[in-house]
Design brief:
single chain, 427 residues, alpha/beta, Adenylosuccinate Synthetase, Chain A, domain 1, Adenylosuccinate Synthetase, subunit A, domain 2, Adenylosuccinate Synthetase, Chain A, domain 3, 3 domains, ten-stranded mixed sheet, four-stranded mixed sheet, binds inosinic acid
Length: 427
């Protein structure tokens, strides 16, 4: 059985949670591999409606083991809150494991995320202020505290003492705020360790065992390709790689083990936070998409910026991810529009281009070149067979497949698990 990576193909919030929840029915293992509690994966299934931030969306499948991989930064308090909520709803979290290599979000990361954003003024990145950037920065600066450190209280104290000294200097001397108390942070993280300890493991071994048993493994991405720190709209990006390649590093397997890469695309585009988005609609069409789709952040509640499907982004996303198929979500949101637009190129400084520029200032200047197609103006959320979709909807999907350059495996017409059309097999 193969490894399938489920990847956000745009700016995040494409519906990866739904796709993972659906595919997890057949999977023995789901590994979340990047990001932190900046992610918000909405899952609607027979267990209820959930907004998951850290727990993999496979948790609702009773036989599936879920792993929070080494590539995730974990806020223990958020994780414990999420586990408690799942337990209260009768969803067992005994099958949830945490990589001992995963870095932890510490109180100073959250403080510094906010202080750094404030200091950027008008140039603020619009982060979720969950401490994600500072935690990943500490990981590569080798200042991180990892989940495994919670299992050894002496080592935790030693590590925390040296790091906190340094962080307190920055908090007090650079930002003029109060220092954090070593005793308080230490005792808080010792408590987290007691609660999370039984879940912390060397998860690479679990992954290896599942692969050796030939079981289906899912790699669950977070955020989307255009938020990748290398390929996204830098510096308006997140701080870990949401790409399929990030799946290898953040879960702990080699690239040859991944058999399928499913890119999850909304049938239009959204973005939350700052940074360029060439197809953004600051008009009543954008408002209509937002209200119909309730496009407000699961994590921060911020209104999402909405716009037409951007095929330049989609093609780029495929180049850097190598999609074998696409899941096209929220098709039903477009049910009311008489005409739809698809961005097929950009006008940049008088030239037409078909690639996504690296330079964020150039992306800001890009004007979308649209192709217009007919809408279908009829409800689709009850439809389960591809052939039953209105002709114009099938034409729209076919055009997206052509522009992305891969087949659509799944089409989603609503939040619930069953509101899914299986167009072509993933495997
Ligand atoms: P950070 O990841 O909190 O540092 O935020 C950096 C950028 O990524 C901001 O524009 C956020 O709005 C965006 N971002 C982070 N996580 C998500 C997500 O799960 N969905 C959509 N945007 C996200």
């Amino acid at each position: 059985m193969p490894v399938i990576a489920v990847i956000g193909a745009q700016w995040g919030d494409e519906g990866k949670g739904k796709v993972v929840d659906l595919l997890a029915q057949e999977a023995s293992l789901v590994v979340r591999f990047s990001g932190g509690d900046n992610a918000g994966h909405t899952v609607v299934n027979p267990c209820g409606k959930f907004g998951l931030h850290l727990v993999p969306s496979g948790i609702f499948s009773p036989h599936t083991v879920c792993i929070i991989g080494n590539g995730v930064v974990i806020n223990p308090s958020v994780l414990i809150g999420e586990m408690d909520q799942l337990d209260r709803c009768g969803v067992a979290t005994t099958r949830l494991f945490i990589s001992d290599r995963a870095n932890l979000i510490m109180p100073y990361h959250i403080l510094l995320d906010g202080l750094e954003e404030e200091s950027r003024g008008e140039k603020a990145l619009g982060t979720t202020r969950k401490g994600i950037g500072p935690a990943f920065a500490d990981k590569v600066a080798r200042l991180g505290i990892r989940a495994g450190d919670l299992l050894d209280k002496d080592m935790l104290l030693e590590r925390l003492r040296s790091v906190l000294d340094y962080k307190n200097t920055i908090l007090t001397k650079v930002y003029g705020v109060s220092p954090l108390s070593l005793d308080e942070v230490y005792s808080q993280y010792c408590q987290y360790g007691e609660r999370l300890g039984p879940h912390i493991r060397e998860t690479v071994i679990m992954l290896e065992e599942a692969l050796n048993r030939d079981e289906l493994v899912l790699l669950e991405g977070a955020q989307g390709a255009l938020l990748d720190p290398d390929f996204g709209t830098y510096p308006y990006t997140t701080s870990s790689s949401p790409l399929a390649g990030g799946g290898c590093l953040g879960a702990g397997l080699g690239p040859t083990r991944i058999n399928r890469v499913v890119g999850v695309f909304k049938s239009y585009c959204t973005r939350v936070g700052s940074g360029p988005m060439p197809t953004e609609l600051k008009d009543e069409t954008g408002d209509l998409i937002r209200e119909r789709a309730h496009e407000y952040g699961t994590t921060t509640g911020r209104p999402r910026r909405c716009g037409w499907f951007d095929a330049v982004v989609a093609r780029f996303s495929n180049q850097i991810n190598g999609f074998t198929g696409a899941a096209i979500t929220r098709l039903d949101i477009l049910d009311v529009f008489p005409r739809l637009k698809i961005c097929v190129g950009y006008k940049l400084d008088g030239r037409t281009i078909d690639y996504f520029p690296a330079n964020v200032a150039a992306v800001e200047r890009c004007q979308p070149v649209y192709e217009e197609v007919a809408g279908w103006q009829t409800p689709t959320s009850h439809i389960r067979e591809y052939e039953q979709l209105p002709l114009e909807a099938r034409q729209y999907i076919a055009r997206l497949e052509e522009l992305i350059s891969c087949p659509a495996n799944l089409i989603s017409v609503g939040q619930a698990r069953e509101q899914t059309i299986h167009k072509t097999p993933i495997l």
